[in-house]
């Protein structure tokens, strides 16, 4: 049952990330924020599944990953729910003043926490195949997301933020595919 939940969750996560890409292409902010809410919720389950199937000697890293994933989800849900509420109510007054900048900063913090959570998740991954080795490397390299969340907005033109998020979407869908393969090879 646990393996099935983990595998289904990876599919949900990948579909939500794909929905973020589609929302950008069709210009639907509401779809994008709904997809981000699903990503936040499914990422916690993904992290817990990695922890469950992780190495026993990496329990501390797995616990840290779960905590960072939970904080990512809490912050992300706050940001995306406020945006979604404003869009669905057609109330731009909600997003006036310094609130948009504050929410943007919180979104960057959430993405940073996600990068840290994936880094800690990689420590516990049991490598049994080439796909597992690539998965572990991709989880570890996702820490670059954490750094990019601060560096890119401070020093780059806004278009680079769009490029970064689209790259991340493709990267994380590939990671989800590898996670599906990883969980498929586990018992339980």
Describe the structure in your own words.
With 188 residues, the protein is an all-alpha fold. 84% of the residues lie in helices and 0% in strands. α1 packs antiparallel against α2, α1 packs antiparallel against α7 and α2 runs parallel beside α4. The longest helix has 30 residues. The chain is globular and about 50 Å long. The model has no long low-confidence stretch (mean pLDDT 88).
Task: Sum up the structure in keywords.
single chain, 188 residues, mainly alpha, 84% helix, globular
Task: Compute the average pLDDT.
Answer: 88
How can the largest sheet be summarized? none
Strand segment tally? 0
**Secondary structural class:** mainly alpha
- Report the order of strands and helices: HHHHHHH
Oligomer: single chain
Annotation field: number of helices:
7
Give the terminus-to-terminus CA distance. 6 Å
Helical content class = over 70%
Residue windows where pLDDT falls under 50 for at least 5 positions: none
User: What is the C-alpha radius of gyration, as a whole number of Å?
Assistant: 17 Å
Which percent band covers the strand fraction?
A: under 5%
